[in-house]
Write a structure and sequence with these properties.
This protein has a single domain, classed as MFS general substrate transporter like domains (Growth Hormone, Chain: A, Up-down Bundle), CATH 1.20.1250.20. Helices cover 74% and strands 1% of the residues. The chain has helices at residues 40-69, 71-78, 88-116, 118-127, 130-139, 147-155, 158-174, 180-206, 216-219, 222-235, 246-253, 256-286, 292-295, 297-317, 319-343, 346-378, 383-402, 404-419, 423-444, and strands spanning 31-32, 238-239. Helix 2 (71-78) packs parallel to helix 12, helix 5 packs antiparallel against helix 6 and helix 12 (256-286) runs parallel beside helix 17.
Length: 454
């Protein structure tokens, strides 16, 4: 059996079926020049094994990216105890700024995969995480740091947010259409899980021994980042056929469906990452007597675990149907959270947000599963074209959706500052989910694509 990890593979290795994604000019290094996962024989004999070998290092790198991206969501809760005199609004800014930067970086990170190769960019993007972790470790020990400088340090955590787009784009090329939902769901869930792990481990690490050592919140990730880069360098591959040019992105950007899906992704992923970032502070400000740093991880944990479930259910039932159900549940979760705040019940508040996290996590998987199905339909089953445009849509949607990580915390901050309550912000989110539900139903269930079981 030929070794598909090397550049020695040529078109003749899989002729005569004319492999999808085959290139005529092999590149030196760890480039795979023939890749056709839609061919059943190729997939069973070689493709599945290679795809899995690339998937696991990608998951680990993305996990660390999310962990670093959301470091400030849990660090800010301890800043007052460490001597920092920032206001509540400023603390919400420190939570929101990494999401803003991460969302903005997702588009260039998407283009980095076809430009530099999935393996190569995974190594580079992993090593970039050393900047925010070392910066955090240095400045959290200096309570006299001005807010503008601390906000700049927090902004560098956005490097971790960009990793998601490049990782998902890369993995989407490795798997056949019939398995994309599960593969992308597992890949994304591994990253999303980083939010829960950082919120679980950081509070334990920074108080280990005597006193409060906030610098450990950054230092603890540095060895893992180095290991991740080494694993990607050793195990992963670049696909020559993984092309997503700027021209392709322009074509995808002209598709109305790209923007519809991006809008829906704000409702699913934007909610997940926004709630994850804000949840520790929400508990701290709404229920001051509750140890927020000890339980905040629960929401992100259940949301992360729900993502692959959403992908698998979508493979069976269709992503649009699952997405509609998700928005129904999220609307109910918001109304339950409002009722719990009015009643002053923390446990009801926690249960309501657990429902929101589960639904938004499943919605992340179902919305992403819709992308390849939609583009396969609108391109007339032209698979190479559909895969290129779908990859471009993934980059655009992941970037637009990630802005929810900025909008949600800022929405809570403005609601608290202006009305002294989270309730107005929650009502706004509920109305938004209702709009998302209607859009999904009209475009992908009742509309022409409904027959395609998108």
């Amino acid at each position: 059996m030929p070794d598909f990890r090397t550049d020695a593979i040529t078109r003749e290795a899989v002729e005569p079926h004319g492999a999808v994604g085959t290139v005529d000019a092999p590149r030196r290094g760890r480039w795979i020049d023939v890749w056709d996962p839609e061919d059943a024989t190729f997939w069973e004999q070689t493709g599945q094994r290679v795809a899995r070998r690339n998937l696991w290092p990608s998951i680990f790198a993305e996990f660390l990216g999310f962990s670093v991206w959301q470091l400030w969501s849990i660090v800010v809760v301890s800043l007052p105890a460490a001597g920092f005199g920032y206001s509540t609004d400023q603390l919400f800014w420190l939570v929101a700024v990494p999401s803003l930067v991460g969302a903005t970086l997702r588009l260039p990170y998407t283009f980095a995969v076809p430009r530099f190769g999935g393996r190569n960019w995974t190594v580079v993007s992993a090593l970039l995480l050393l900047i925010p972790t070392s910066g955090l470790a240095y400045f959290v020990t200096r309570p006299d740091t001005p807010f503008w400088l601390m906000a700049l340090v927090a902004a560098t955590a956005g490097f971790g947010g960009g990793n998601f787009a490049s990782s998902m784009t890369n993995i989407s090329f490795f798997y056949p259409e019939r398995s994309k939902g599960a593969a992308l769901g597992i890949n994304a869930a591994g990253g999303n899980l980083g939010v829960a792990i950082v919120q679980l481990l950081v509070p334990l690490v920074i108080v280990a021994g005597a006193g409060l050592s906030l610098e450990r919140a950054g230092l603890m990730w540095i060895p893992l980042i180095v290991i991740s880069a080494a694993l990607a360098w050793r195990l992963m591959d670049n696909l020559s056929g993984a092309t997503s040019s700027f021209r392709t992105s322009i074509v995808a950007a002209k598709r109305a469906h790209t923007w519809v899906i991006s809008f829906l992704y704000i409702g699913t992923f934007g909610s997940f990452i926004g709630f994850s970032a804000a949840f520790p502070l929400l508990i701290k400000t709404s229920f001051p007597d509750v140890p927020a740093v000890r339980i905040a991880f629960i929401g992100a944990l259940v949301g992360s675990l729900a993502r692959p479930l959403g992908g698998k259910l979508s493979d069976r039932l269709g992503g649009a149907r699952i997405t509609v159900a998700v928005f129904v549940v999220m609307g109910g979760g918001i109304l339950a959270a409002i009722a719990s705040l009015n009643a002053g019940s923390f446990w009801a508040f926690l249960a309501s947000f657990v429902v929101l996290f589960i639904a938004s996590g499943a919605g992340n998987g179902s919305t992403y599963r819709m992308i390849p199905a939609v583009f396969r339909s609108i391109t007339g089953n032209d698979l190479p074209r559909a895969r290129r445009e779908a990859a471009a849509c993934i980059g655009i949607a992941s970037a637009i959706g990630a802005y929810g990580g900025f909008l949600v915390p800022r929405g809570f901050a403005m609601s608290t500052e202006r009305y002294g309550s989270l309730v107005p912000a929650l009502y706004t989110f509920c109305a938004f989910y209702a709009v998302c539900l209607v859009v999904t139903y009209l475009c992908y269930i009742r509309g022409p694509l409904g027959r395609e079981r998108v």
